[in-house]
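so im writing up the methods section and need the Outer membrane protein assembly factor BamD record in one place, dumping it here so i stop losing it
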Amino acid sequence: MNKIFSVLLISVLFVSCSQYQKALKSEDIAVKTEVANKMYDAGKYTKAIRLYEQIAPAYKGKPSAERMFFFYANSLYKSKQYYLAGYQFENFAATYPKSEKRQEAAFLGAECFYRLSPVYSLDQTDTEKALDKLQRFIDTYPESQYLEQANSYVKELREKQEKKAFEIAKQYNTISDFKGALKALENFISDYPGTPFKEEALYYRFDSAYKLAMNSVESKKQERLAYAKTTHMNLVKFNDGTEYKEKADKMLADIEKELQQFSK
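--- predicted struct ---
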């Protein structure tokens, strides 16, 4: 039984391959279209793309072009060619404003840039483009079935931007540039008040203020110790059960001890 099934499968694949090769060489647009759609339905998107690329010029301006161009764009998307897919989906949405597929095309076009967004440590140009396109989709289709997913993508991308900004600010602390760290972390906290990295940013601001104060010349030490004490208070006020509490409280004890010399 298995041998019969294997023979039938090989026969089907051979016929399919033969049809595809003939369609590639054919001058008949109808033949190419039929086979391209078969490849699309079978999930053979790379083969479908080759045929759609051949017939696309002949379809421009024709009533039947709408379906073909959506399949073409979706084939690119399914085969993870996101730059090309994004362009084709955007072009589709602009060319067919009354299409029932327009909203889906607009969403998938924006999603392509979401897929192109790199890890936070790399250049975030594509992240910014994705955010712009997703926000435009949300504004244009506030009742869309894709709205929840679009908002989820926006949240994820914004957190990625915040992560990059935070890591840049934190880097000053890592390289012991505590003045630079204080400025960068203060700007970060101000720019991203609702960030999920706020507690960590508050801790590293305190750590930077502490280290700057403890290593200061006497003429600046009291003022810097007092500021470091304030940054500790800000951290605990934000979360009195912070994961950094044990370390932070030990550092606060050092600050209090150093401040005693100025109260004599």
